[in-house]
Specification:
By secondary structure, this protein is an alpha+beta fold. It has 8 helices and 10 strands. The protein has one domain.
Length: 227
Amino acid sequence: MESEKEVSDEPVDEDWITRFFSYAGEISTEEMQTLWAQILAGEVKRPKSFSLRTLQVLRNLTKDEARVFTTVSNYVIKTDDKTYVYIGNYMDSMRSSLHDFEIGFDDISLLREIGLVQYGESINLQIVSTTKSITTTFFQIGDLILEAELKPAKPTINLPIILYTSIGKELLNLIKPVRKFEYVQKLAKVLWEKGANVRWGEIEEVKEDGEIVHTPLKEFPSFQIKF
């Protein structure tokens, strides 16, 4: 495969450059300086990747807030038009399924407070079956892909989710998720219990048009999905 082009022919907006160096000059910790360097490299490579609003949020982001964002982002799921985290049960009594992965209600509330995610009882991912054909939904979770097939006339599947904002999605471009296979198993189990047939594979390449190249899909062994 040809090496990826590192610099775009499109120039970076001058106002963006001015704002970037003004904000970046205020950063003193090495960890956060590295984050700002990634922002600049990403914008040079693909202008308009990071908005001025994102720079404003990042300017006020603390190390602890960045750590929480990175931790939660290990559980990000992408479908055709959404970027989110599956939370299982809605946050009744300050608890959700994310507690199984050491992510607390306070962590999610913090990310909402700084404008990176949103959630609520009405924010769900729906998988709706048709009357005649199988409905197939693909979930991209880090370097894994999950396929859920819902047979005709099956009940609609509702998955409570935490939805990333536009700023959150821009910052996600800086994160390389760590594989969390137990989380994928948990989502697969929920889909299976709701009537979907579920398979998984490893992602080999994501093309510029969004097409995902992956290994042959495999069934979940019963000892994995029925825990």
